[in-house]
Amino acid sequence: MTQTLPSLAQEAWLNEPRLQRLFAVLSETGGEGRVAGGAVRNALLGVAIADIDIATTLTPQQVMLACRAAGFAVHPTGIDHGTVTVVVERQPFEVTSLRQDVATDGRHAQVAFTSDWMTDALRRDFTMNALYCDAHGKLYDYTNGYRDLLARRINFVGDAAARIREDYLRILRFFRFHARFGEGRPDERGLAACVALKTGIAGLSAERIRQELLKLLEAPGAVPTLMVMAESGILAEIIPFTEQFAVLERLPRDGILRLAVLAAEPEQLKSRLRLANEEAARIMSALNMPDVAPDMAAHEQRVLLYARGAQAWEDGVDISWALSGAALDDGGWRALRDLPERWITPRMPVTGQDLVGLGFPPGPLMGRTLRRLEQYWLDHDFAPTRRELLALAKEGKDG
Fold it and tell me: How far is the C-alpha of 157 from the C-alpha of 163, rounded, in Å?
C-alpha cells in the first residue's frame, strides 16, 4: 500500500525569504533545488532543524556562477563531492549537486554528477535521510523513507552491506541514528550487515569515530543502543569499554561525561579518538574526583570545589550520584550538584606580588609561604582577610 505523503508547505523554515530566494535562483538558472535529508526528516518528526541542505540538478559550476551573479557569497567547501556553501544574507546553505558514487574505498568516494533524483536517493545511507522537499512543500520519497520514519526504523537504502562497504562510518551512523530516532531493537537486516563488516571500523579516522560516538552518547536511546553494540561485538571495535550501562543511563546526556564512564582505558582516549586537550583533561579530572555525597560537610564541599573547579565538581557529583542509586530528583544530591551556582569560588587574597612588598625574595621561601597562607585560609573556611594573611606572612618572615 502506497503511503500518502504530507505537505510541508506551511513550515515557517521552508517559507523563510532567504531560502526561497535561493530556490528561485536555482530555478531561474534552469535547474531545481530541493531540501534534502536531515531538515526534511526532522520537520516530519517535529524535531528542531539545525541545518538546511539543498540538493540540485545543477552542476557545482552552474551553482557558483548563478549564486555569485545573484550577489550571494559562495565557498567551494566540498567541491570534489559537488558541495558549495552559499551564503544568503549571512545565512549559509550547503548546496550539493545530485550525484552517484562511481568508486569507493570504504572511506572516500569518487562521484559523478547526475540530474536524476532517484539515482541520488539510492546512494544515500538510510531511507529516512533520502527524503526531499521542494520549494512548495511537496515531499518526494524514492525509498519508502516516510514509512520507515513513521515506524521509527533505521533502514539502509537498498543493500545494507553495499552501503556499508561504500563508507564504514555508516556502521556507527546506523547505531547513532537508532539511538536518536529509532525505537525497539535495531533493524535486523542492518544489524547483521554491521556485525559482518565491523572490522572495517578500524580503517576509519579517529576524528570521524569520535564525532559519531559523542553524538550517539548524547542521544535519548544511547544506553540500550550501546548494549546492542556491546553484545554484537561492535563496541569493542571502537574502544575497550566497561559495562556500567545502568550508571550511564543515570548520567546526564553529556557525551564527554558518558565517555569517561564507558571507557575501560580512559587515559588512552585522547590518542585513540583524537580528543581535544580540554576534553581529555575533563575526563581525567572527572574520574580523579573523590567520591562525594550529600552528607559531606559544607566546609569540605567548598574546599573541594575550590581545589578542583566547577566543571570537575559537577562531573564528579554526577558520577557519584549515578553510582549511588539515589533518586534522580533527590534534593540533597541536587543541592550538592548546584553548589557552584550558589557559592562563587573566592580567589586567594594574597599573591606573590604582595609578598614581594613584604620583602620576600622570589624563590622557594615565597612558594612555601604562599602555600602555608593558602592552607590557613582554607582551614578557616576562606574567612581570613588579605590583611590577616599578610600579617601572618610577616610574622613567619620575621620569626
Answer: 7
pLDDT tens-digit readout, 47-74: 999 899 999 999 999 999 999 999 999 9
Other beta carbons less than 10 A from residue 2's beta carbon:
7
Q: How far apart are CA 150 and CA 230, in angstroms?
A: 27
The Cα 215–Cα 253 span in angstroms is 10
Q: Please give the full DSSP string across 267-336, using - where no structure is assigned.
A: GGHHHHHT--HHHHHHHHHHHTSPP--TTS-HHHHHHHHHHH-HHHHHHHHHHHHHHHT--TT-HHHHHH
* Span 190-203, pLDDT tens digits: 999 999 999 999 99
C-alpha cell, 112:
559523478
Q: Domain-by-domain residue ranges, the chain?
A: 17-150, 160-285, 298-342, 352-398
> Kindly report the CA angle at 385 between 384 and 387, in degrees rounded to 5?
125
DSSP structure string for 131-144: EEE-TTSBEEESSS
CA distance 27 to 20: 10
CB 313 within 8 A of CB 305: yes
Regarding beta strands 99-104 and 91-97, do their DSSP bridges make them parallel or antiparallel, or are they unpaired? Answer: unpaired
Strand intervals (E) in the chain: 33-36, 53-56, 73-78, 83-88, 91-97, 99-104, 109-113, 131-133, 139-141
Does the domain at 160-285 match CATH 3.50.30.20? Answer given as no
- For the 17-150 domain, the top CATH level (class) is alpha beta
| CB burial string 278-304: b at 16+ within 10 A, e below | ebbebbebbbebeebebeeeeeebbeb
Cα gap 239→268, rounded to integer Å: 9
Cβ 203 vs Cβ 108: under 8 Å: no
User: No. of H helices and E strands in the chain?
Assistant: 21, 9
Per-residue pLDDT tens over the stretch 95-139:
999 998 765 655 556 678 999 999 999 999 999 999 999 999 999
Q: CA-CA distance, 289 to 316, in Å (whole number)?
A: 6
The DSSP letter of residue 239 is -
